[in-house]
Specification:
Layout (H helix, E strand, L loop, with lengths): L9 E5 L3 H12 L3 E6 L10 E5 L2 E4 L13 H4 L9 E3 L4 E5 L2 E5 L3 H12 L1 H25 L5 H8 L10 H9 L2 H8 L3 H11 L12 H5 L10 E3 L4 H13 L3 E4 L3 E7 L2 E7 L4 E3 L2 E4 L3 H8 L5 H10 L7 E8 L16 E4 L3 H12 L8 E5 L14 E8 L11 H19 L7 E7 L1 H8 L36 E3 L13 H14 L1 H19 L1
Parallel strand pairs: 1-2, 1-13, 2-9, 6-15, 13-19
Antiparallel strand pairs: 3-4, 5-8, 6-7, 10-11, 11-12, 14-17, 14-18, 15-16, 16-17
Length: about 550
C-alpha cells in the first residue's frame, strides 16, 4: 500500500551493520526521520574495528572490501568527504609455493607475467582469456546483485550473459552449473594456479568441488577491473563514514540499546521496543540483523506458518571459519615475496587436495588438522593500525565447524586452534611464529557471541546456489518485504545478494520500502544510485 503509513515519516533500522547503515542513509536522504538501534557499543557489526591490544586497531569481522567498490554506493553517498579513505590492494592476491609465488595484480599483463614465470606460457595465456571472458559475464552478475531479485530484474540483467563467446545457451548454463574445480580443470594445467584460484573462490563458504560453484572462481576476475580496498584505519572506517553521512542527513544511531522486539498491530509494524524498554513508534522498520533473529524479534506478529517454514528451511550451516588477530614484531617473510606482497590477500594452501581434506574434516564436525589460511598484513602500509615498528596481522582459517562432533568445546581448544593458523603462515614464511607477541582468537562460537553471527556463519546463511538470488534466504522473503507484516523490510547478508562487504542489499531494501511508500522518493533514490554507478564506471 502506497502513501502515508502509520508512524508518519519515522523509520527505525534494527542493527548498525554496514547494510543497515546504507539503508538508513538512503531513507534519511529521501526525507524520512531515521533512527538506527544497535545493541553493541560500536557501529558496523562485522564491519567494525576496535583496539584489542594497546596501539593495535583490529578488525572484528571483515578486513578487505571487494564488492562494495563495484556498487557506486561510496560515490553516491560521497563517503570520502565523510572520512573514508580506501587504500588499494594491488596486487590483490599472492599465493606462495616454496621458493615461487604467483602475484595477482590489477594489471592483467603483470598478472600473466607472474603466472608465466611459475606455471608456463600456456597457463598465462589461458588465464588472460579466462579473465576477459568471465569478467564480462560477472559485470552482468553484479548488475543483477544491485537490485531486488525479481524475475524482471534478473531476466533483464542476466539475459544473454556470455553470448559474446559464441557458445550456445546449453553450454553456457553448463559452465555456470559445473563445479569450480571442473571449470579450473577445463582451463588450466598447473595445480598451483588452480589451487590459488580455488582457495580464493572458496572464501564464500562452499568448497570448489561442489556443483554450481563455478562462478565463485569466475567472479574474482572483476578484481582486475576495480581492486579490493582496505579502509585506512581499519574495516570499521566504512561504517563510521556511513554513520557520519546518516547524521548529516538528520538521522541518528542509538548504541548500546538494541531491539528487544519489533511491535505490530493489525498486520502492520508499529515500531521497535528497545532493550531499555523505550518504544520507538515507526511505520517503517528495516531489519539488518540475521533473518532468524528478525523472526524472533517479530514473535507473534509473524504468520505462524511462515515462521515455521523459515526456521526449517533457512540453512545457516555449521559455521564457516575462524580468525586470529596478531600483534607481531615483523611481517611474514615469504621466499617469493616483494614489498608489494603485503598489500595482497595471502592465499596459503599447498594444493586442492589439501583444501578438500580440510573441508572433509569440517564436514565431519572436526577442527582441521592443518587449516587452510588467508593472511592479511595491512599494517605494512597503514601506519594507523599498529604501534611504530610493530605489525597487525590477520589470519582467517576455513573450514572450522561451529558444532564439534568429537566432544571438545571451542572455549577449551581456542588457543590450540589459533596456534594452528599461526603455524600455517610459518610453514610458508619460516620464522613468523617467533614474531607473534600477542594473539586474539575468534572461534566460530566467539563470532556468534560478539557479532550475532548465528552458528558462526559469517554469511548469515549459506551461500549455496539454492540460497542465492530469488531463493535467498527463501522465496517468500527474497523481495526484502516481510509477508503479512506491512511496513516491515529485511536487508543484510541474509538477503540478496548475500554476505561480504557489499551494501547492495541495504540500498535495495531502501528502494523497495520507498517505492511502497512514495514513488517520487523512489525515483530520487534510483537516480542517485545510477549516478553513483556512473561515476564509478567513469
Amino acid at each position: 500500500m502506497k502513501g502515508v503509513l502509520p508512524g508518519g515519516d519515522r523509520a527505525v533500522v534494527v542493527g548498525a551493520g554496514h547494510n543497515g547503515l546504507v539503508a538508513a542513509c538512503y531513507l534519511a536522504r529521501a526525507g524520512l526521520d531515521v533512527e538506527v538501534v544497535e545493541r553493541d557499543s560500536v557501529v558496523g557489526g562485522a564491519v567494525s574495528t576496535v583496539e584489542r591490544f594497546p596501539g593495535y586497531r583490529m578488525d572484528r569481522g571483515s578486513s578487505a572490501h571487494i564488492m562494495v567498490r563495484h556498487t557506486g554506493i561510496v560515490e553516491d553517498l560521497d563517503l570520502v568527504s565523510a572520512g573514508l579513505e580506501y587504500q588499494d590492494l594491488d596486487p590483490w592476491g599472492f599465493a606462495p609455493f616454496g621458493d615461487e609465488g604467483i602475484h595477482f595484480h590489477v594489471d592483467l599483463d603483470r598478472t600473466c607475467a607472474s603466472i608465466e614465470a611459475v606455471c608456463g606460457s600456456r597457463d598465462a595465456a589461458a588465464y588472460r582469456a579466462f579473465v576477459l571472458d568471465w569478467s564480462a559475464r560477472n559485470l552482468r552478475v553484479f548488475q543483477a546483485f544491485q537490485g531486488p531479485p525479481t524475475m524482471t530484474h534478473l531476466g533483464r540483467t542476466l539475459w544473454g550473459i556470455g553470448t559474446s563467446t559464441g557458445l550456445d545457451g546449453l553450454e553456457l548454463s553448463r559452465q555456470f552449473l559445473t563445479s569450480a574445480d571442473g571449470l579450473l580443470d577445463e582451463h588450466f594445467d598447473d595445480e598451483r594456479l588452480k589451487t590459488a584460484l580455488a582457495w580464493l573462490g572458496a572464501q564464500s563458504g562452499p568448497p570448489t568441488h561442489e556443483v554450481a560453484t563455478a562462478d565463485l572462481v569466475g567472479w574474482n576476475t572483476v578484481m582486475h577491473l576495480v581492486p579490493p580496498g582496505h579502509p585506512k584505519g581499519g574495516s570499521g572506517m566504512l561504517s563510521e563514514a556511513l554513520q557520519r553521512r546518516l547524521e548529516s542527513y538528520g538521522g541518528r544511531v542509538r548504541l548500546g540499546d538494541g531491539a528487544a522486539a519489533i511491535t505490530t498491530s493489525g498486520g502492520r509494524t508499529t515500531g521497535v521496543l528497545t532493550s531499555s524498554g523505550e518504544h520507538l513508534p515507526a511505520g517503517l522498520v528495516v531489519a539488518g540483523c540475521h533473518v532468524l533473529t528478525t523472526l524472533d524479534l517479530l514473535g507473534d506478529g509473524l504468520p505462524a506458518d511462515l515462521a515455521g517454514r523459515a526456521r526449517r528451511s533457512v540453512r545457516t550451516g555449521n559455521g564457516i571459519g575462524m580468525v586470529v588477530r596478531l600483534a607481531t614484531s615483523a611481517l611474514p617473510a615469504y621466499a617469493a615475496g616483494t614489498p608489494q606482497t603485503y598489500r595482497a590477500l595471502q592465499l596459503i594452501a599447498p594444493s586442492r587436495q589439501f583444501l578438500r581434506k580440510a573441508h572433509g574434516e569440517y564436514s565431519a564436525g572436526l577442527p582441521p588438522e592443518q587449516p587452510a589460511a588467508l593472511a592479511m598484513t595491512f599494517s605494512a602500509f597503514d601506519d594507523t593500525i599498529a604501534p611504530p615498528g610493530k605489525h597487525n596481522v590477520t589470519v582467517w582459517g576455513q573450514w572450522h565447524p561451529y558444532a564439534l562432533s568429537n566432544g571438545e568445546s571451542w572455549d577449551a581448544i581456542r588457543e590450540r586452534e589459533g596456534t594452528k593458523l599461526v603455524e600455517a603462515v610459518d610453514r610458508v614464511a619460516p620464522g613468523f611464529a617467533g614474531s607473534v607477541e600477542q594473539m586474539h582468537v575468534q572461534t566460530p562460537l566467539d563470532l556468534e557471541r560478539e557479532l550475532g553471527l548465528l552458528r558462526g556463519q559469517v554469511m548469515h546463511v549459506e551461500m549455496a546456489f539454492d540460497q542465492m538470488f530469488l531463493w535467498r534466504p527463501m522465496p517468500e522473503l527474497a523481495g526484502y518485504r516481510m509477508p503479512g507484516v506491512g511496513g516491515m523490510y529485511l536487508c543484510g547478508a541474509s538477503t540478496h545478494p548475500g554476505g561480504g562487504v557489499f551494501g547492495a542489499s541495504g540500498r535495495s531494501a531502501a528502494v523497495v520500502a520507498l517505492g511502497d511508500r512514495s514513488p517520487s522518493r523512489l525515483a530520487r533514490v534510483a537516480a542517485g544510485a545510477r549516478a553513483g554507478r556512473d561515476r564509478l564506471r567513469g
